[in-house]
Fold these 3 entries.
Entry 1:
Amino acid sequence: MTVLCHIDDIDDEQSKGFEVGGDNLFAVKKNGQVFLYRNSCPHLGVELNWQEDKFLDMDGMLIQCSTHGALFLIEDGACVSGPCQGQQLQAVGFGIVDGMISLVD
């Protein structure tokens, strides 16, 4: 298993990016629950973040693409606004063991 970070390294309603073997991923923590996605907008394949570890809109309620402003639900990655509406982010399998967020091999 590839360990990404400790669950406490991500504050609630915040996000964190990771590079693992050339793959760019990001995690979002909402209400104590973690969600992990590939850092790739389904519209153009560009990275979503506008600054390091910044993947959420100003309210911290939705994931936002920095290129075209598309908005995605944190819970399932579904695009609810923007050019990729009806598509969704690609979820990545992970587990949490002893507080450590790790990729599922």
Entry 2:
Amino acid sequence: MEQIYFFIIAIVAVVSAVLVVSCKSPINNAVALMMTFVCLANFYVMLHAPFMAAVQIMVYAGAILMLIVFVIMLLNLNTVLIQKTSHSVVGAITLAGLVFFQLYYMLGHSSTTSIKGDISNELVMEVGHTQLLAKSLFVEFLLPFEIASILLLVAVIGAVVLSKRNAAAQE
């Protein structure tokens, strides 16, 4: 059952990732990106990393995605409104219901895997997820973490500069 759930989430993740790069409307791209982030959070839950799943939802699907939507709105990209069709709404509701049912079933009936690593269950229970993650993030991977934050800052500044330039050219 766990493999079926993994394959369903993997297919949804791949389809939504393809939609991120293939949709014509930037808002639709952002919605597809949110679905990709939610699928990644499901993968973290399957890997027994609940803190990472919560961070994925709060930081990426929440804050970063809202920042992207804000920049899209700030750039005032002309988007064409497309009428909703009833079969797409029914399909989306059916798919969401299936994913939620699978998630509910997996959380209730799953067991731990036999994969062994450097961090044992005893160490996680003794120290905690958050401390182990923080040590890894701010000691071992500090430079990539800071580079990612600088890149996000530069992207926001670039979007503001481009929008101001376009606003000045239109006046």
Entry 3:
Amino acid sequence: MQTLLRWLKYIFIIYTIHTTLIQTNAYTDMMVSKKDLSFEVLSIETNQNELIVRGWAFISYKQHFNNSSDHSSYLEFFNINDQFRIQASLTNISQTQMMKYFGSPSCSSISTYQMPEVCNYNYEQVGFEAKVPLERFRVGDSYQTNIIVQGHTAGISYKTALYYPLPNDVILSSTGRETVVTSRLDATELKINATTVLARKQAQKQSAYWFYGSNCSTTYRNQLFFQINTIYRKIYEKVINENTSYYRVGGNLNVCYDSRRRITEGTLIQPVWIASPYVLYSGTPLQIKVNLKNQAPSFIKEEINIYQGETFVLSDYVQAIDPEEGDISYRIVEISSNLDRYTVGRYTINVQVSDNEGLSSNTNVFVNVLTRPNNAPIINASDIKIQQFAHFNGLEYVNAYDDEDGDLTENVLILNSIDTTLLSDQELCYYVEDLKYLSTTKCIIVSIYSYQELMNKIRYVSKNNMFYNESLPINWTHKQIILEQVILNNNALENQSIN
């Protein structure tokens, strides 16, 4: 009973420590080799705003990796001037089968720090996806990369340099940026990090293994194993299969060690494949460099429609915008043109613009020369009044204009005559046509009035008779006495002055 209580107390203490570590995230990163922190970068890409790194990583032989509650993964980017880390989301990638030591049982859920010869751990949900804002990188600086994995059950945080062996640098383009990914395969060496790694014939988990040479034991016979700590510098090929990288190398027979036939680097046995979890990398770790990308300018344009003979200003119809410099329309130059402004048709003007770094763009601006429409001429004339018997010339009271032909006043014709002897309103009509024989007619009223009528409109007044030959206005009647008195007074004053 006491033993059981002590065991339960031990479990409680472990659980409490584990919970505290998760809550406070109080880890001290320990720099280790890939032997302790196994990883794989499966892909690196960009979208418009982010660098996306996908892969898997786990701490070897320390605890179970089942789900997000027992481990976390981070990527760390650093250089002499800057350092930051991004937590990755975990993805459903398993490495349990790859790491399984056949013949060993599964480790208990709370066991830690057990070698595979004792028991096997689960390595589930060990995939990661890290999304890094591109703006977080300082433009022009190279960043090295670390992978960090925290094991919550074991209460540890391991960190190691991240490698992504590639035949050549990868250049990823996004809006306004260019991301260079470097981790050269030809500068990478593979070091065998375990004693029980079998030499595969194919790049897959279920591959057949090599048997070659004389037997080393009745148990393993002449099955080939990699010699631990040997280095492979000649890497012929890299293949990713089922989320695991396999490297093709060549081997030579070596001594028997631990009852197993061993191989080292050579050319006798080929092809030999080894999975990435069983090797250490040396050479060029993963480096990230983000540069601003000079983008070509672009055009904003519209088709040009003109009538025959018209002129236009090209800059009114086409604009050049550079992503880095803004509006550079003033740099647009005409490269070629087949425009004939006087002939109806569709024409092309090719223009070019260059930014400060000499990156150029060309575009075609289309010009449609249209048949000029013929509008009817306009006659300007208004109704007039003339005195009876007066001399009358109707052309003195009219002018005409045409949109296409200009002033046509000299072409105006009068369609009828006016009799100035008759007191009446008479209609006078004008006619004009343009050079394309499109005509306009307009009539006005000429009013003939008499001299007597004009005289009747003149009123003569004097101080003695305010309303000459007219009766007093009705609304002035009540003022009559006052007006007469004013007149009398004025007469009296004048008489006094004379005397």
